[in-house]
Design brief:
The chain is an alpha+beta fold and 84 residues long. The chain has helices at residues 2-19, 24-40; strands spanning 48-55, 58-63, 68-73, 79-83.
Length: 84
């Protein structure tokens, strides 16, 4: 089924994003990972230009096209992307 595979891919991408420490050298990798998660949710972005970390599993991503998203894990461990 497509839905479980898509969800699994999103979760793995998000987990990879969270596994790296937030250093300047890793910033580009985090932006790319968050872009991939946003794209897998079918939301417009273009490119993530900045990331603000709110908590361990909670990020605010700002896209080049002006869209802003909150990317986080919910209580069930699912990746959620909310348009702000």
């Amino acid at each position: 089924m497509k839905t479980p595979m898509t969800g699994m891919a999103m979760a793995m991408t998000f987990a990879a994003c969270l596994a790296t420490p937030l250093h300047a050298a890793d910033d580009e990798a985090i932006r790319k990972d968050l872009f991939a998660v946003i794209a897998l949710h079918g939301l417009p972005c273009g490119e993530v230009v900045s990331v603000a970390t709110r908590a361990e599993n909670d990020h605010l991503a700002t896209c080049k096209d002006g869209n802003r998203y909150r990317v986080f894990l919910n209580a069930e461990g699912r990746v959620i992307v909310e348009k702000l």
